[in-house]
Design goal:
By secondary structure, the chain is α/β, with parallel strands linked by helices. The protein is built from 13 helices and 15 strands. Bound molecules: pyridoxal-5'-phosphate.
Length: about 450
């Protein structure tokens, strides 16, 4: 046994002293121990090189090995790592980042509340939506409408908004007042479609019907990922979000855009509702704000919500916030990260190389398992089925292909019966080709077995 094998055995044993997220422990028997990373590549302790086709968890937008962010963090930590941002204090990095973000994602969203991650952001969004309606004298407006296949995080309310059953099963009951409607999946829409209706129109109608069924006076907000990530990289039809926006306006329902994945360039626009010319009332963000170098998230709100908070009488204060809201070091890193995304033209790179990636993945539909390739920017997926006529999802094959890709040096992620590709936005054309080539080789091998 080599030195590294002995160490590895010890690490695996010691690793069992932590719980790993979102999986059964029996699937964590021979983890890859990642030692370092550079660009789009991960390197394991035993010398393997893996192209990280998921940019960590859809978040390492500027790629690995950036040297500016550690410098910014070091300087900030030495000067002032943290302040309480509660009553009466603040810090310069959070002031500067809030200023930078004001109107940055969407012109109407000028005010930010910081969190440390996506679940906290959505939690904050739900509470703020309820708060808003109470301030406006409509305390019955508390319900949150979400969609099937949605993933909004893991805290209690975020889990309740999540529309994937296995996240609920062992943690129920869910919080009352969260309900789900069909998602606008153009390839397998679950709701009813009327004659002459598009999937986008039918899915938007499902929202309207849910609001009317519940009573508009009871609905606080609708939450949607512009492109569902964990649910399978579902890109909605173009007519969906414009109609959703109209419906939310008509029934006085706040529209929360969960852009924890799609924000900061991932889809080839800085923020994804921009593809459809729509603005939300509340935006949730996290992940790409720091490219994963340090935890940070937040929400942004429009002026009506901001005014409701700002002008509240003292007993109706917005009693929300975390120890780490506006964390000085995280905000300093976030600010520089956003500047890097802009300076390096990473949104445009995401758009252009996203087209290259999607074209390459579309060519893989020649294999019997790959029914469709879809995506926007560097957020893409191929869907794996038993046969293309019935389109029956094939989860075992999806997982087997993911494992085979990893063995071939490509990290992808099974999201339902789709394999997701969401590499760093710094990826080069040659590296995009290598993703497609490796996945093609894996499929060839799979079909020759
Ligand atoms: C769309 C979306 N919202 C929220 C979250 C939760 O974020 P976090 O894991 O940082 O709490 C995720 C995580 O993947 C996500 O994809």
């Amino acid at each position: 046994m080599s030195f590294i094998e002995q160490d590895y055995a010890v690490w695996v044993e010691q690793d069992q002293k932590q719980l790993h997220p979102l999986q059964h422990a029996s699937r964590h028997t021979n983890p890859l121990v990642i030692e370092r990373a550079e660009g789009v590549y991960l390197y394991t302790v035993d010398g393997r090189k893996i192209l990280d086709g998921m940019a960590g968890l859809w978040n390492v937008n500027i790629g690995y090995g950036n040297t500016e962010l550690p410098e910014v963090a070091r300087e900030q930590m030495l000067r002032l790592p943290f302040t309480s941002n509660f009553a009466g204090m603040t810090n310069l990095p959070s002031i500067q980042l809030a200023e930078k973000l004001s109107g940055f994602a969407y012109a109407d969203l000028k005010t930010t509340a910081f969190t440390s991650g996506g679940s906290e952001s959505n939690e904050t969004a739900f509470k703020t939506a309820r708060y808003y309606w109470k301030r406006l004298g409509k305390p019955e407006k508390t319900k949150i409408i979400a969609r099937n296949a949605a993933y909004h995080g893991i805290s209690m309310a975020a889990t309740s908004a999540t529309g994937i059953a296995r996240y609920h099963t062992m943690f129920g009951p869910q919080i009352p007042g969260f309900l789900h409607i069909p998602n606008p999946n153009p390839h397998r829409y679950e709701g009813d479609i009327r004659d002459g209706e598009t999937v986008g129109q039918a899915a938007a109608r499902a929202l309207e019907e849910a609001i009317l069924r519940e009573g508009p006076e009871t609905v606080a907000a609708f939450i949607a990922e512009p492109i569902q990530g964990v649910g399978g990289v579902i890109v909605p039809p173009d007519d969906y979000f414009p109609r959703v926006r109209q419906i939310c306006d008509q029934y006085e329902v706040l529209f929360i855009s969960d852009e924890v994945i799609t924000g900061f360039g991932r889809t080839g626009k800085m923020f994804a509702l921009g593809h459809w010319g729509v603005q939300p009332d509340i935006l949730s963000f996290a992940k790409g704000i720091t490219s994963g170098y340090i935890p940070l998230g937040g929400i942004q709100i429009n002026d009506a919500i901001r005014d409701a908070i700002w002008n509240a009488p003292e007993p109706e204060s917005w009693m929300h916030g975390y120890t780490y809201s506006g964390h000085a070091t995280a905000c300093a890193v976030g600010l520089r990260n956003v500047e890097i995304i802009e300076r390096e033209g990473l949104v445009e790179n995401s758009r252009v190389l996203g087209e290259q990636l999607l074209k390459g993945l579309e060519a893989l539909t020649e294999f019997p398992q790959v029914v469709v390739a879809r995506g926007k920017g560097l957020l893409c997926a191929i869907e794996i089925v038993k046969d293309k006529t019935s389109r029956t999802p094939d989860l075992p094959t999806t997982n087997a292909l993911m494992g085979a890709a990893m063995n071939a040096g490509l990290r992808t992620r099974a999201v339902g019966n789709a394999l997701a590709f969401s590499p760093p936005l710094t990826i080069t054309p040659a590296e995009v080709d290598s993703i497609v080539q490796t996945m093609g080789d894996v499929l060839v091998k799979h079909n020759s077995q």
